[in-house]
Amino acid sequence: MKKKPKTPYKEFLLQGNEAIVEGALRAGCRFFAGYPITPATEIAEAMSVKLPQVGGTYIQMEDEIASMAAVIGASLAGVKSMTATSGPGFSLMQENLGFAIMAEVPCVIVDAMRGGPSTGLPTSPSQSDVMQARWGTHGDHPIIALCPSTVRECYDLTIKAFNLSEKFRNPVIILVDEVVAHMREKITIFEDEEVEIFNRIKPNMPPEWYIPYVDTPSGVPPMANFGEGYRYHVTGLTHDIRGFPTSRPDEIDPFIRRLFRKISQHFSELQFGEFYETDDADITIIAYGCVARSAKRAAIDARQKGLKVGMLKLNTLWPFMRTAVEKVLNTSKIVIVPEMNMGQISREVKRVNKGSTKIFTINKVDGTIITPQEILARIKEVG
Amino acid sequence: MKKKPKTPYKEFLLQGNEAIVEGALRAGCRFFAGYPITPATEIAEAMSVKLPQVGGTYIQMEDEIASMAAVIGASLAGVKSMTATSGPGFSLMQENLGFAIMAEVPCVIVDAMRGGPSTGLPTSPSQSDVMQARWGTHGDHPIIALCPSTVRECYDLTIKAFNLSEKFRNPVIILVDEVVAHMREKITIFEDEEVEIFNRIKPNMPPEWYIPYVDTPSGVPPMANFGEGYRYHVTGLTHDIRGFPTSRPDEIDPFIRRLFRKISQHFSELQFGEFYETDDADITIIAYGCVARSAKRAAIDARQKGLKVGMLKLNTLWPFMRTAVEKVLNTSKIVIVPEMNMGQISREVKRVNKGSTKIFTINKVDGTIITPQEILARIKEVG
Amino acid sequence: MPEITKLIHKYLRHDKKFPHVWCPGCGIGIMLGALIRAIDRCGFTKDEIVLVSGIGCTGRLPVYVDFNTLHTTHGRALAFATGIKLANPKLKVIVVMGDGDAVAIGGNHFIHAARRNIDLTAIILNNSIYGMTGGQYSPTTPYGMKTTTSSYIHIEQAFNISELAVTAGAPFVGRGTVYHAKLLDSLMEKAFLKKGFAVVEVISHCHTQFGKLNKMGGAVEMMQWQKDHAVTVEKAATMSEEELKGKFKIGVLVDKELPVYLDEYEKIRQMAMSKKEK
Amino acid sequence: MPEITKLIHKYLRHDKKFPHVWCPGCGIGIMLGALIRAIDRCGFTKDEIVLVSGIGCTGRLPVYVDFNTLHTTHGRALAFATGIKLANPKLKVIVVMGDGDAVAIGGNHFIHAARRNIDLTAIILNNSIYGMTGGQYSPTTPYGMKTTTSSYIHIEQAFNISELAVTAGAPFVGRGTVYHAKLLDSLMEKAFLKKGFAVVEVISHCHTQFGKLNKMGGAVEMMQWQKDHAVTVEKAATMSEEELKGKFKIGVLVDKELPVYLDEYEKIRQMAMSKKEK
Amino acid sequence: MSGKKEKKTKIDIFKGWCKACGICEAFCPAGVLARDEAGYPYVKFPEKCISCGWCELRCPDFAITVYKKDKDFKEIDEEETKNTL
Amino acid sequence: MSGKKEKKTKIDIFKGWCKACGICEAFCPAGVLARDEAGYPYVKFPEKCISCGWCELRCPDFAITVYKKDKDFKEIDEEETKNTL
Amino acid sequence: MSFRYDIRLSGSGGQGIILMGIILAEAAGIYEGRHVSQTQSYGPEARGGSSKAEVVISDIDIDYPKALKLDVLLAMNQKSCDDYYMDLKPDGILIVDSTFVKQIPIARAYQIPFTRIAREKFGKEMVANIIALGAITKLTDIVSPKSMEKAVLARVPKGTEKLNKDALNAGMAEAIKARKNILPFVRSEREDEDT
Amino acid sequence: MSFRYDIRLSGSGGQGIILMGIILAEAAGIYEGRHVSQTQSYGPEARGGSSKAEVVISDIDIDYPKALKLDVLLAMNQKSCDDYYMDLKPDGILIVDSTFVKQIPIARAYQIPFTRIAREKFGKEMVANIIALGAITKLTDIVSPKSMEKAVLARVPKGTEKLNKDALNAGMAEAIKARKNILPFVRSEREDEDT
Ligand SMILES: Cc1ncc(C[n+]2csc(CCOP(=O)(O)OP(=O)(O)O)c2C)c(N)n1
Ligand SMILES: Cc1ncc(C[n+]2csc(CCOP(=O)(O)OP(=O)(O)O)c2C)c(N)n1
Ligand code: SF4
Ligand code: SF4
Ligand code: SF4
Ligand code: SF4
């Protein structure tokens, strides 16, 4: 993302949720359909105020299923669209999320994570929808999921989410925990800053030549919006390159593999995170979301105590940041993965662990944030 | 499961789906709520005919969300209950599935797997809901999922599913692929055979002393049915041992951990599968569902060709059969995991792989079954 | 204590913390009182009552009372209740929902429960807004009002919950307000004793959200509004269209006999068993 | 070819395999003809039409015609369509659904789209059964009939789709049958030209499932039944209750003016922009 | 061949799309059509045709076409609709 | 103390549960109640009480109790309902 | 060596192909005590289209449940004949409904007009599949006529027993006739089916 | 060493605790250019109950966003005072609304009847939180009165500017009075906050 920060700028004290709204609007989002739910409601509320100001549309649907459907519909009609929910609603969105993947419709879904399972702890933070974001809808499929740790990242990653979604014609999920969603921090937005905005690539051939699901070098076919003269068929059935349903194995196989390839092929473009003093670290903490903040504090404190501790912050959760994780697995003796769940990302770390690095976890599921002290204690315990 | 096969017996040619129905009825299932969907519809149809014959109840709900809800309601009222669906419906059931986990309500859910994502390939087989069964609902949670390869296993595992569900007060998922669901095989049922049937443990203390969510040595609290004099509160909110909502970390943490522990503590009771000539195998195929049948054939054929090939069939998919898999990882040089998805169980195999065993995959997502030939070819390729 | 209050206390859960969670003056508490009195008058035992709710401020109601209580997921209470009733027809199953619970996310279950005529009582507290999540518009928010998601103005038409129930097939539909607390008692009593799907729409107020956003005052002012705008069915029959404008009817709106699901299903069981025997 | 058939062919997708997927004699094809003719008469261009469907036999319709076509998930077509229409109000969005699609799993979206009065046309092919999955009962299966999941007898009451639409708030509701193909043309034409949520209920037959299970004969016999049991609204007005028993009305059932969602939303935009400017 | 002027109404049946459902024949108000052994329709009494076009409108498979001399459907629709209800 | 016989109607307000919403006072048809500085209700004119019991029925917090001499709610309900609508 | 016999029945939806598969599987499995596995596939969730049923018969547990190389292919329409004849073993048996299958892709095939016989002899196209089962019985010897008859009678609607029995017999009679019109070949019935 | 200052504002729902947090954070963050992080927690999804807002102020990026050991605790009711006073640093400042907080758990606390002042002086309980903000400003020096005033005025509804300015000033005045009634102590403002 190129930036030429210039005055005039404005400083705001924004909630994570509000920063997501600002990021979305900046990215060009002009449609929001949702259904209120703690701790994501502020996103809907802010959208209901701001979207009509910029000529966009806010609608509160009858439930989350309808919200996800409306978002896909709006995107097919050419408008960048988004919804926001929390666990219970995210579960309900899964079927239509799969539709968006299958039909390759760009859209952004925010899941503000609260304690689960079920109604759980509506107002407490958690990080337990990480695996759901990857596997929640039926049928094998690729997904992109980003996770902010700061209010600024809420803004930046939301813009990225829209860009990636438009670029890869895949839904992008923003997993924000309740702490970050509700936290207020100062963020500086330069009114005329240049933010790279990516818009879906439209077909430039005559309509008769348009093949809506054709393979391309990038794996992503150009996308025509409804009403622009490229009439084609969109379906959740397995389809051929023209978009028509097919059950021919020789058409299905390349199609499904292309869905995966268009993401895997651009793996490096999808990796966002931060290495904090990991180069010489004996112990590396791998963390994300609000916990990454505690982890950094713990690393700083540990260094002060003379321990070589580093931190890898993951801002991309899916596709899993394999390369970055392998890098710290190669250099660190011990990796600690603190998470506000029973161990979701730590499973992935174990999966890619080839060497002899020891992997320890800190799992907290009681609705409270993992503190720097808890991480420090674990460092002392295992170090 | 003890069995004393005695005459009179009867041989049937049953579909996998029909055998699931027979197993459910034998296990004591007396309530079915569902919504038709290929390839699970035969289960609903057979239930609609058979349940009223035994005094049970069939109801077709307005959708899968309602079906799952009705099943939970019926179970709370004391009746063993079940629903059956396929991918799209399974996605819709996720929210209430989480409720059943949180409120510890026994019930059985059949997911007859067809091609995905989205509407996908409604009449073709697939194994791509394996990870969804584990992670589909929001919030971290434990699950039990069984997977039959034969019509007989459809019958037996359905009985097991009900038993486990009643025993652990957790929903149990039966993941049956379209091939097994629709395949007809002969099955012999002894009319008076002794099948071990487990019924939920009811409280035997006076109602005033009943603590509905108390911890016990097994981790499973006794369960009172609605209407039996033990009035208590059931909620999807995180609750204390009395069932009342709580947001106290010191009450939540032990509760959530107990949910996991009641399953993990009984890990060995939950492992069903078959080792086929794995002891001396250089190459072991790990497979499940219809693919395990091809795998066995491939192993037999390979042995005939002089190759030391064995097979581990997984009938339990969740909790993951770590011990069994580790066993073959320790003895085999190569493990091949053929799956009708992009690699879901193979991820788990990689996760638990500590040694230097090489793991290869065969992934097919075109709606056709993996054949013995394809597995053999892979054996030759990597062997 | 005099009988009536003893009565309430007989049904409250002693081990739950009071005062309850609702805002000072919220109508949900008034509805809870009516519900308890009506149950008592009908003579049900505590053990045979199952009180089911969804999620919302109203959804919090069951936890306070000493029945078999079930706090389900948002919008799905009627579907859970359907399972309970079919599994054990001896239980008296009562469902309490907010308007969002009942006719936003739960709208489909509502019309289908009505159509099937399952023997349940559905009590809907209609406060025109989503209370629990802080005041977003609901399908019963009147045109022109303000909510946190229609801060300019609300442009949608509202459902008439009772009419929807009637069209969908409910044989008993009543409407009351929390101001008219005794009418609520009697509507609930009638609904509980009705065989089949019985609906009681309870007009209430959420002064904390709806009242505040629309400058309608507090609980007292909003209850005064209920008093001023409600007209009994009997009185409405004597009024002109013109006079009825802006008013809403309270009382028993519909009470008719329709085949009840469980009786019908018993027929299926008979057919099935006789077929099996052959 | 004469004009009318050329007309149909003008709209069919040349690259799709014909004959289409439906059973010989299925009414869905007849409805498709009416839909095409009505669109043509209204003078819409192909590019401005978006044809949306859910899942089911009826859901397969859009793939055959050369518009912007969208085959969504089961029951959700109206919600997808809502997004399309709001995002690009210039598009003419038409939604075709089976009865299961529209009022079983999709019932809630149906009543909410009606309530909001979103400018969409909803065409519901009501064949009283789930055709695609092989003949299970649907919310419109009449009491007493047989289906594969009510093989003893069906005990539920059926929805009256059109009445439900009216109560929920739809300003235009028409009903036709595939037997009365020309009436269908005109109902659809009126619906397409209506501003707001317009519903056309198309009574059709699934002889393959419903007809077979209930010994009602094939397509011809079931269309004969439609002929015998349908009464035009005009004629019904002259008939007694008694005479109308067992009959159903066809024609324009309701046509009134109500504020349309998008016009209303435009007001919000105006308010928002003027507020922002200050 | 829309330009072609014909004296008599002509009915074309496109066998490739026809599924032999029998609807056209059953509801032809003038008894013009009949069905062959395999159930496929054919024009048995072309002279009886009254150009109503109903067979074409009711064919679910777009397999039947009525070529009319001087009327076109648009004009007669409304009227016909009333008459046949 | 249900056994206790009292001559006059007595109103008890349980402050522990009362949230000072003001409903009881606002709708008392006889003006029996008043509110203190903090908004909590108290019985200002006990002699005015007509034993209608509405304050008790409308209290959302079960915080107010009316002890009546010789009537009980069950009997007067129906009548009262009509009168106050 | 264990014995395995792979049969595919194919045609269009509505010809009763799946029922044939079930009856054949029951004849071999229930009435002759063998191991059987019967599978099928439909077209996309929709109506009409083509229909396919497979029966694998063996004397041991059947691992791979779908037909591999075919011992028998029954094709009740042209399309399925064209699509599947390549899957036949060199000595596999092709049986076609010559009412619909006009182009025979291989030299040796049994051509019997099942549907025409059903129509002409029984006035009910519906029984073409039972006639075909009769033919299969005689042409393959994989199940005895007696077992097949039992299997048919157990599955057909009450009141149609006579009709179906006659149809089955007609099929067997036709098969004997058809055998005469075909090139002779030797089939080793219990050979090693290693595929 | 970097400087970090942890403040917790607590009371019951309806006392405007969250708004206080926002205003305080904006005063320090926007008007004084520091790094701030403001968090809060509600009770269960429901109404009423207790309310808590935290503000962390620092001169560098704030990692852990919630308050650790407290430099300042404002307790607007008894419950929150009881619940949280233990989290205070040894030299942390406790400020209570003495209208509601009657039992003071530690010796050194500033007791100001914010609500009573609001009621009596301004006739609006609503402004108790602004009065408290005034007191915090004066008692902590963590933000300047000027910044605080700007922050307050930017957040209060139009037309209430005067009222709120007066309330703020009243709070500052009360704070000065209150300071006299408290045990003296020395607070090193920029010490190492290693927790
Ligand atoms: C699936 C799901 N979506 C959204 C929510 C968030 N939520 C909780 S209560 C509620 C609405 C409350 O309104 P209503 O049903 O009218 O009840 P009230 O609170 O007004 O009594 C919502 C949207 C949820 N818990 N679950
Ligand atoms: C979520 C989900 N549930 C169930 C299904 C299976 N299904 C496909 S079509 C259908 C119903 C078809 O009936 P209807 O909507 O009346 O349309 P018809 O086929 O009769 O035209 C069902 C239940 C599905 N595809 N998705
Ligand atoms: S928010 Fe509204 S509905 Fe909820 S308790 Fe408060 S007043 Fe009642
Ligand atoms: S199954 Fe029924 S609805 Fe579907 S195509 Fe056939 S006749 Fe039509
Ligand atoms: S109506 Fe059409 S498909 Fe049916 S027989 Fe006539 S021409 Fe053929
Ligand atoms: S109605 Fe109840 S809660 Fe309200 S002021 Fe009166 S006694 Fe208190």
Q: Care to describe what's here?
A:
The complex is a heterooctamer, with 2 copies of chain A (383 residues), 2 copies of chain C (278 residues), 2 copies of chain E (85 residues) and 2 copies of chain G (195 residues). Chain A is α/β, with parallel strands linked by helices. Helix content of chain A is 37%, strand content 22%. In chain A, strands 2, 3, 4, 5, 6, 7, 8 and 14 form an 8-stranded mixed β-sheet that branches. In chain A, strands 11-13-12-15-16 form a 5-stranded mixed β-sheet, with helices on both faces. Chain A starts with 8 loop residues before the first strand and ends with a helix. Chain E has a two-stranded antiparallel sheet. Chain E has a two-stranded antiparallel sheet with strand order 2-3. In chain E, a hairpin with a 5-residue loop joins strand 2 and strand 3 (41-43). With 85 residues, chain E is an alpha+beta fold. Chain G has a single domain (4-180), classed as Pyruvate-ferredoxin oxidoreductase, PFOR, domain III (Pyruvate-ferredoxin Oxidoreductase, domain 3). In chain G, 37% of the residues lie in helices and 23% in strands. Chain G is built from 6 helices and 6 strands. In chain G, strand 2 and strand 3 form a beta hairpin. The longest helix of chain G has 20 residues, at 161-180. The model of chain G is unreliable at 186-195 (pLDDT under 50). The chains are: A alpha/beta (383), C alpha/beta (278), E alpha+beta (85), G alpha/beta (195). Chains in contact: A-B, A-C, A-D, A-H, B-C, B-D, B-G, C-D, C-F, C-H, D-E, D-G. At the A-B interface, helix 4, strand 6, helix 5, helix 8 and helix 11 of A face helix 4, strand 6, helix 5, helix 8 and helix 11 of B. The complex binds thiamine diphosphate (TPP) (2 copies) and iron/sulfur cluster (SF4) (4 copies). Residues 13, 18-24, 41, 59, 61, 63-64 of chain F line the site of one iron/sulfur cluster.
Task: Give a quick rundown of the structure.
The complex is a heterooctamer, with two copies of chain A (383 residues), two copies of chain C (278 residues), two copies of chain E (85 residues) and two copies of chain G (195 residues). Chain A has 383 residues and is α/β, with parallel strands linked by helices.
